[in-house]
Write a structure and sequence with these properties.
Shape: globular
Order of helices and strands: HHHEEEEEHEEHEHHH
Largest sheet: 8 strands, mixed
Number of helices: 8
Distance between the termini: 144 Å
Number of strands: 8
Oligomer: single chain
Structural class: alpha+beta
């Protein structure tokens, strides 16, 4: 009976081994069936129930399904030689963020794991509304950048010729180049604009006299819009206009503080404006000097800076003729204005009378 049981056991063992392979053999060995089939003299020592089971090293592909014979003895796989190395955890951005469940003495994650800590979203993401941006193809809202672009383009266009003419005039006058300041002294009854310049630390030097090709009005200051008077006083240049209807123009900063103060005293409003040095030969309160002369004044002002351009407009040459008698048709404050203008003209020496007459006729 024992022999029959042994044969049946071996047959069952063969069938199980063909399906389960080495794993099934080990399982039978743990159940004690392998030892019973082999006999008492071939039994191996049983493992304790709580002994750990090491993962067997995977056999080659050709041996995985091989038939396990009972003559091989006890099946024992050796554990692979694996070196265990402790690995420090990866530091992530989340490690720098304090969380409600972490304390100074406890850490929820082991140093042998590489899992990143999951930071809960404490609040919903907010929709950031950005202000509207100006696209690169859209024109600027302000007019200044556009004016600057036109100014640069106009200067590139007219500067070569204007600079050649200015160089000749400065050489003829033996005036230093480049100047740091320039002055446009305008004498209404002589219809001339004197160009004066000076270098750093040097006195003013008369460079050239430009004829005024067109001007309206008569002696006396400008008082209101539409009187077609050329203003009289001491001014500056407000800005350069490269897109003038009269070639190029330089805007005089009329009305200045004195003009506004006297208008308030007289009760006058609407003082007018847009007084220019410009090209062409037409005028309605402006000073038209022709295209070439306007280019030279324009380029010169651009080079020294409009803040370094002084404008003096007088009814007559006070340096030679002195102050005129008071005119009853003029406001009572006009003699005081003329005294200011005469003082402002003093540093700018004019040419001799004969040269002044000839230059006003032939020069440009």
């Amino acid at each position: 009976m024992g022999i029959r049981f042994s044969k049946l056991s071996l047959m069952a063992l063969g069938v199980a081994a063909s399906f389960a392979g080495a794993g099934g053999t080990i399982a039978f060995d743990r159940l004690g069936l392998l030892g019973a089939a082999l006999g008492p003299d071939q039994n191996t020592a049983k493992l304790p129930a709580d002994a750990p089971i090491t993962s067997p090293e995977m056999p080659d592909g050709a041996d995985r399904f091989a038939y396990v014979s009972a003559d091989v003895g006890a099946l024992r796989w050796t554990a692979p030689n694996i070196e265990i190395v402790a690995v420090a955890p990866l530091k992530t951005l989340a490690d720098d963020i304090p969380t409600p469940w972490t304390t100074a003495t406890s850490a929820p994650w082991s140093t042998e794991t590489r899992a990143e800590r999951v930071i809960p979203l404490l609040e919903l993401p907010r929709l950031a509304i950005r202000p509207p941006q100006t696209s690169a193809w859209m024109p600027p809202r302000a007019s200044a950048p556009l004016r600057d672009y036109r100014l640069a383009r106009k200067l590139a266009e007219i500067s070569p010729g204007a600079m050649r003419r200015l160089d000749a005039k400065f050489r003829a006058a033996k005036a230093a180049w480049p100047p740091v300041e320039v002055a446009f002294v305008t004498i209404k009854d002589e219809k001339t604009v004197e160009l004066h310049a000076r270098s750093e630390g040097a006195p003013w030097k008369l460079v050239h006299r430009y004829p005024v090709l067109a001007a309206s009005g008569k002696a006396g200051p400008k008082l209101q819009q539409g009187d077609k008077q050329v203003p009289e006083g001491v001014y500056g240049i407000a800005y350069l206009n490269p897109a003038s209807r009269y070639h190029v123009s330089l805007r005089v900063n009329y009305p200045n503080a004195f003009d506004r103060q006297m208008a308030a005293k007289d009760g006058r409003r609407d003082l007018g404006g847009d007084i220019m040095f410009h090209g062409k030969a037409v005028s309605a309160g402006c000073i038209a000097v022709g295209d070439e002369a306007s280019e030279e004044l324009f380029v010169l002002a651009a080079n020294v800076g409009v803040e370094n351009v002084k404008v003096v407009i007088a009814p007559s040459d006070f340096r030679r003729n002195g102050l005129p008698m008071a005119n009853p048709a003029h406001p009572e404050w006009v003699p005081g204005l003329y005294a200011q203008v005469a003082s402002a003209m003093a540093p700018f020496k004019g040419p001799p009378p004969s040269q002044s007459l000839l230059s006003s006729i032939f020069s440009n």
